[in-house]
Amino acid sequence: MNFRDEFERYAREWQEHIDDHSFTANPSIYIEHPSFENIVAMGKEVIPLIIEAYSEGHLFWGAALVRITGKDDFGNGVTGNLGAQRTSWLNWAKEV
Amino acid sequence: MCRDKSMPIGVTNQAAVKLPSVDRSSYPDVDAQSASSSAIVKADSYIASFARGQFQGYVQFGSHDTLNISEDQNGRDPSFVGAAGKSFRVKVDPNMFKTGENPTLYWAYSTKNQKGSSSAPLEFARDLRSGALLPAIVNIDIPKEARGIMRLRLEAIRDGEPHVQWDPKFDVKILPQTGAQIHFDSNWQANTIGEIRAGDSLDLAYDMSRLRRILGENITDAVACVQFDERPAVEFNIGIKQDGQIDSHASFSPRIQIPYEAESMKIWFKGEANGQIVHDSRFGENFKFDVGLPRGDSNPAWKQTILSSRNAIAGLREDNFSALGPNNPLYNCIAWSIGSRHDWVWPGDTISDFDGLYAQHGYHPLDSVDDHALSHEPGVEKIAIYGYISNRPSRAKQGPVVTHAARQIDDGQWTSKLGSNSLIAHPDPRTIEGSTYGKLLKVYARTK
Question: What is the pLDDT of residues A34-70, one digit of tens each?
Fold first, then answer.
């Protein structure tokens, strides 16, 4: 399985977990999943693929970027204004 | 024109606040008793004009005055605008078809409870002098209850087979009949009639004497600029042109639809004369209005999305709640309980964590979760939290796990934002008790 396929598999599994908990208010539950941890473990190389998914998909990708980069000045990715955090991360990706 | 040419039609990139405005001193002294007023006209009917590769929407008032109101901004939106309870006229150019194709116009719309559709043959009469074919015209009376989109399609017989022409650009956005009016009168007042609510229509009635006093008679452009929340402002023509000149004694009252997610609205007006642009914008502050929640189940699809979800909340049924918007992942129920529609808020999952959060917002806990605690008391705002006892002994020692919060609104109904799904209203706070959120744990209250 190539790198992209691996990412897409984890992303799909994580999305299913998020969909399964779409009535949940506690945002920590959305990132409590092995596929989220697997994506984080893929390291900095996966950031472009995350940015691609983040621009169209759910709002919790920021939590993965915080974990991978250690950068939390846009927020923690699970609480706060997640829409604004997405905008900040997408702008950041254009600049780096 | 004062529109930025680089922006799509109808959109301005002007800043929303602190617009340059004429100085207060340049406003003439207006005596309420002597202020002159101007006529304000509303649309009589809406028109869609089809020609080969060209789709244009118009609004008509009086006998033959029209304003261009096409709304297509990105090639995917409906090209046309119509209004519930008003006549909608479809004008089709004969060059779209060959002789003998016998084209027919079909249309379909939805009301809250049913769908309607009909059709009419397109008949091209001949000009008596030139012999040329004239456009076919079909009149459609849009029902008062119609909402959403009216779909148009053209069908003809080509080479013996039905040939359908349809594109999302053929769609007609239907402006709802229910709504409010804001009258910007000749005395510099802005009076709201009715309730401004998301999803409803809004009529802007602007007395042109306001701009006339600033710019004189030779006005060449007049528009209303409307901005919802922090979205780009949209311009609506309010000037009525006659012989290339704006009629400074009359204005057109545009009807607009307030987006379902809108919370606030700013309005200002721009006028141009002799190259000078001025803003009637409450001295640069703009006219600001709060937007109320949409009417329950304005779009029947909202409720069905919740009920058909694979993890739907067991207690919710068709008849015991109403949906107040589409799915919205931008905020959760805790944010909603403290008045935000932009954040995910989570203070922790113990009751103590929530006591702390709500204390910061001026709420105090009530002693029980009985009917009295959950009742509607005018002047008192209430929040209820839900939860369950954890199966994990170590967590169970800390007390219940909080899962959800609901907020009581002014009319006494309880409202819940369901995770990343819709905001709903449910008269009984116990409706959502069950396996998803557990049981009611505590009620908090504060005086307004």
Answer: 999 999 999 999 999 999 999 998 999 999 999 999 9
Q: How far apart are CA B313 and CA B437, in angstroms?
A: 8
Chain B hits for A21, CB-CB cut-off 8 Å, are 311, 419
- The Cα–Cα gap between A93 and B76 comes to 28
Distance CA B261, CA B304 (A): 18
CA B424 to CA B405: how far, in whole Å? 12
Residue of chain B minimizing CA distance to A16: B310
Radius of gyration from C-alpha coordinates of chain B: 27
Interface of B with A (CB under 8 A): 309-311, 313, 329-330, 332-334, 342-346, 349, 403-405, 417-421, 436-437
- Other CB atoms within 10 A of residue A64 CB: 24
Tokens of B94: 């004969």
* Record: contact B419-A24, CB cut-off 8 A: yes
CA distance A92 to chain B (A): 20
Chain B nearest-CA residue for A28: B346
Strands B201-206 and B179-184: parallel
Q: What's the pLDDT tens digit per position in B392-441?
A: 999 999 999 999 999 999 999 999 999 999 999 999 999 999 999 999 99
Regarding an ipTM greater than 0.90, the answer is yes
How do residues B208-240 score in pLDDT, each as one tens digit? 999 999 998 889 999 999 999 988 999 998 988
How long is chain A?
96
Sign of CA pseudo-dihedral B61, B226, B270, B178: positive
Whole-angstrom distance, CA of residue B409 vs CA of residue B418: 16
